[in-house]
Specification:
Blueprint: H1 2-36, H2 58-84, H3 88-109, H4 123-149, H5 158-179, H6 186-206, H7 208-232
Helix pairs in contact: 1-2, 1-6, 2-3, 3-4, 4-5, 4-6, 5-6
Length: about 230
Amino acid sequence: MQASSLRDTAGSRGLLLAGILAPVVLTAAIVVAGQFEPGYSHVSQYVSELGAVGASHQKAFSYGGLLFSGLLTALFALGMLLQVTPRASFIASSLLVALAGLGRLVAGIFPCDAGCVIEDMSIPATIHAFAGFVALTSGAVAPLILAVGLRRHSHVQLLPLSVALGSASLILVLILFGAGKGVPYAGVIQRLILIAFYVWVVAVALKIETLRLTIGAEMTSDTRLEPTREHGE
């Protein structure tokens, strides 16, 4: 039983490495595809336009960039979930990370229309837009939910980092989707959201032992309080 538990822990930690690899894969795909896309601007254009219908390397970017990085993110979420249970806020944060990964994966399967226009979208483009919204929004909220679980642990470095990155990301998501494609520097804003999310993912992967200890301390504290409560009743 103990050996099985050790294998499970090692396996879940292995899944966490996927979270570190995901931003490397996505960044490389964006840089390479952007280099070979005529007239493409990282400042004003969405990442999705590199995988849009008619793009120079549509399938390579969609599958090798969006889908693969989304899969890696979802695997990281599974590893995180296995490590941080049973606290509800930690579980919720893990599930939101999974949604971010699955949203990116689905966005890689269903490309947006040429230029990622929002007028008269095709069914695949509509699915892509919804999946992209879910991915970015879930990724922005996940750090804030984790911060809720860490609110009693000001000494944990992940608390201020989660609050800062989550808050900044959520504001940028509201700006990006609130103003639509006409928002100035849309490409920069989207990339900042992605950077904030994956910086947080990497931080969680590297500090997962801190989360485990935090959960253990909370459970021990709650267990010690239970007899006192019973005696008081």
